[in-house]
Amino acid sequence: MKFGESKMERPFGVALLSILAMIQAVLGFVVAALAGIIFAWLETIMVEGDAYGSLEPGFFTALGTVVAVVCALFAIIYLLIAWGLWTGQGWAWTVTLIFTILSLIGSVISLIAIVGIVPLVINILILYYLTRPHVKAFFGKGPAPEAPPPPPP
């Protein structure tokens, strides 16, 4: 977009997807914090209570740190996606499309276990929505939709 050009209005569904990505980011940070706390607690319970000495000190702390860091990294990624969706960044559309396709594949695999029908439907709806012309145009991935003709007098 060049200087002086106006950007089209954010579609409601894009705002909704952005808010959902923000919620997912916040939950990711909560899970990261809980992982650190729970694994540190497990360290004190399991290692100190291990009468046989079979558990290595620091194992649960290290495992908790790895889980917390991975969760925090995904939370940061979802924060960036939320911002990109909100501001209409083309890369956010692409990343969301890729994540949705990967999640769709996971939903199909879960469907085999008869637990993934709801995520499957949600992912299909998101994939359909992201490919609508007005949504693609908002992210600069397609031409702007034509304005409807004026109403008859």
Keywords:
5 helices, elongated, mainly alpha, 2 domains, 153 residues
Describe the protein in words.
- Helix content is 71%, strand content 0%.
- The protein is an all-alpha fold.
- The protein has 2 domains: 12-87; 88-142, no CATH class.
- The longest helix has 37 residues, at 12-48.
- The protein is elongated and about 85 Å long.
- It starts with 11 loop residues before the first helix and ends in a 15-residue tail after the last helix.
- The relative contact order is 0.13.
Write down how many β-strands occur, each being a DSSP E stretch of 2 or more residues: 0
Strand content: under 5%
**Residues in helix, %:** over 70%
Distance between the termini: 35 Å
Q: What is the topology?
A:
Layout (H helix, E strand, L loop, with lengths): L11 H37 L10 H29 L2 H23 L4 H14 L2 H6 L15
Quick structural overview:
The protein has 153 residues and is mostly helical.
